[in-house]
Give the backbone structure.
Amino acid sequence: MESKMISLEDLNAAVTAAVNAALDAREGARKKVMHSREAVAERLHVNVSTLWRWQHSGYLRVVKIGRRCWYHEDDVRRIETGEMRVPE
């Protein structure tokens, strides 16, 4: 078996790339956090009918599983921070 030498710079670049890929994957998994209708209504201090209206206007994305509605953490956070402007 032939052995090859790798430079310290190449090793550092490979480790950095692997760590960055792992961090990106972790961030991607965090973005998939979902919340129930009741939890989002409580968190945003709105009525569930407001969530229904936002959902049907296209302002708030919803994932339906059976009869239950789930909302993306990213969308809820954007509303909380004012990044997404609430429709009038």
